[in-house]
Amino acid sequence: MSQKPMGKLALALVLICAFSAKTHALTPGDLSRVTFEQHPGVQISPDLNFRDENSTPFRLGDHFGKQPTILVLGYYRCPMLCSMINDGLIHALQELPLNVGRDFQIIEVSIDPAETGSAAVQKKSEYVREYGRPGAANNWHFLMGDERSIAQLANQAGFRYVHDSQTHEYAHPSGVMVLTPRGKISRYVFGVRLDARELRDALTAAKEEKSSSIISQVFLLCYHYNPITGRYGALILAILRVSSLGFVAAIAWWLFSMTRRSAKGHAPIN
Q: Considering only CA atoms, which of 115, 105, 109 is closest in space to residue 169?
């Protein structure tokens, strides 16, 4: 699928998500602040301290300097979007000859200060298994941190998100950042179905310590899972409804076309 149709689809899904959940505390104004503010060339602070999935202290700077980093912000108990982003990332990585560990590392950071180690361990096990290449486990880090460290990292990355106090979930943009070996932001890759060639180019540029200019972005935001009803609402149901309507419209158009064609075939000859 070309970038233009994908962009239209993503924009449509943004609108679906933004206007479909009436039971959430966030307003359109809140959602308008959810975005990536691109900061190419900005240095991610090496002194930021987190904990990895084993609760071992993890200073970012101790893991800079050797290879590019794919930085993913989200949260591990996210009911929908974060898994979609990581599935898209893994799918793209599986198309590349580059390998986690040998050519780059991945650092995932939860934006939820209340995140638990068990959730991080579970996600790591799931994603590493899905990726399926050896050597990934030691170079794919799942971090947790306090509110101050998370806020500082998100601010440097330009990752703007908001917390829904009613559902205790987060509305956040989708995509990943690619850092140079020194920890500077090289490029952003947006969306949930990441393009393998774009990701490869981003890793290549990052390895050479290059930072790209600001690029246009289309992102998805959707956190609409109702913990009371236990149902996924906005995005999935809306997609199914739109898809169903599209299918019905296509069948109706086909029947109409066939009827017209049949009528022309039986038309009297003057």
A: 115
- The C-alpha atoms of residue 235 and residue 16 are separated, in whole angstroms, by 7
Assess contact for 17 and 164: CB atoms under 8 A. Answer: no
Tokens of residue 162, six digits: 């908001």
Reading the block at residue 17, the tokens are 């998500």
Instruction: Output phi, psi for 159, to 5 deg.
Output: -90, 100
Q: Token pair for residue 8?
A: 């239209």
Yes or no: say if 172 and 66 are a contact pair by the CB < 8 Å rule: no
Query: Which amino acid type is present at position 154?
Result: A
Q: How do strand 69-74 and strand 105-110 relate by DSSP bridges? A: parallel
Residues 203-238: tens digit of each pLDDT: 999 999 998 766 555 545 544 433 333 344 444 445
How far apart are alpha carbons 177 and 190 in whole angstroms?
8
Q: DSSP secondary structure string, 23-85?
A: SSS--HHHHHT-EE---TTPBPPTT-EEE-TTS-EEEGGGG-SSS-EEEEEE-TT-SSHHHHH
> ∠ at Cα 77 (73, 83), nearest 5°?
60
Q: Is the CA virtual torsion 95, 101, 105, 107 positive or negative?
A: positive
Per-residue pLDDT tens digits for 31-80: 777 888 899 999 999 999 999 999 999 999 999 998 999 999 999 988 77
CA 131 to chain centre: 16
Three-class SS of residue 242?
Answer: helix
CA 168 to chain centroid: 19
CB distance 48 to 152 below 8 Å = yes
Yes or no: say if 78 and 169 are a contact pair by the CB < 8 Å rule.
yes
| Residue recorded with tokens 């890793």 | 203
Question: Are the beta carbons of 104 and 68 closer than 8 angstroms?
Answer: yes
